Amino acid sequence: MAKTKDNKANTTESKPGEQIGKTEAGSTTGSPSEPVASTPVTSGGSTGTSNSTAPLASTAIKKRGRTPGRGPKPGKKLRNHLKNVKSKLAKEGVVPLKKGLTLLKSIKRAKFDETVEVHIKLGIDTTSADQMVRGTVPLPYGKGKAVRVIVFCQGDDVNKAKEAGADFAGSDELIKKIQTENWVDFDVALATQSMMGQVSRLGKILGPRNLMPTPKAGTVVPANSDVGAAVKEFKAGKVEYRADKSGNVHAGVGKLSFDEEKLQANVQALVDQVRAAKPSGVKGNYVESISICSSMSPSIRITM
User: Fold this and answer.
1) What tens digit of pLDDT does each residue of 171-185 get?
2) CA 165 to chain centre
3) Are the beta carbons of 117 and 253 closer than 8 angstroms?
4) Which of 219, 216, 217 is closest to 149 using CA atoms?
5) CATH number of the domain to which 199 belongs
């Protein structure tokens, strides 16, 4: 009988391999048939919830048929409107300036006062330094937008600039504020010729924002010139233009609420100035095409 009891005890003992397998599975207690709940482990080895929010979010975006970084598709009403507008403009083709402005006003859809833009394609070689097109032009009726002007000047020029309407005028205190705070709360920066030595230190801040005063843009006031007159010109709506890397000139020339006559005069002034700035090294057709558009409309090809 003793031997029989010993045999039964041996049969109930678990084998070493089986015990190790249970321990590794996490079931040191309870019945072997019970399901084992696995605990998520983070990369640091501690238990917790893994950070899988980003993959899930991108998967959800893909399921909805969207591309990350792009907004939703336009609604059916907007798509039909744009389709009708484009077909209408395609039938008109290239039109005179006056008719183009009339068409531009007729296709207005936005609820805000849109900016009227002019885009000029130039036949220039942008890799050649002597074919860069850049300058300023005073618009007869302004841009319809309040322009914030800062003037870097000293002495009596500070009072002259402020009397002419400059929003900020000064020297060292303004330069220090821009350097320490990256302050660029203005639209146009003017500087007297005597101040350019100090203003040049702001090139890394003002340069990328196209706010650095330069003689080509007319934002450097020469010696013995009237600072107040320069301020008044830019406050009234003097526009700076320059050709980009593709040889295109872009500029705003007013608001869509302007009368057609005023918009026509502003567009004519810009185009005439760009034509007058033709580089001597340009061969062939200088002005290849001119288009106008508003902030939210397709472009209209015009002839001038």
Assistant:
1) 999 999 999 999 999
2) 29
3) yes
4) 219
5) 3.40.50.790
Q: ∠ CA(29), CA(34), CA(39), 5° rounding?
A: 75
Q: What is the pTM of this model?
A: 0.64
Q: Which of 183, 204, 236 is the last residue of a domain?
A: 236
Q: Is the dihedral of CA 15, 16, 22, 25 positive or negative?
A: negative
Contact by Cβ (8 Å): 304, 291: no
Residue 177, Cβ neighbours under 10 Å: how many? Answer: 14
Predicted pLDDT at 31: 45
Of 10-14, 58-62, 118-122, the least confident:
10-14
Domain that holds residue 108: 93-144+237-304
Q: Alpha-carbon distance 272 to 103, whole Å?
A: 22
Which of 255, 237, 279, 15 minimizes the C-alpha distance to 136? Answer: 237
Residue labelled with tokens 């507008």: 85
User: Nearest 5°: phi and psi at 190?
Assistant: -110, 155
Contact present, 177 and 183 (Cβ < 8 Å): yes
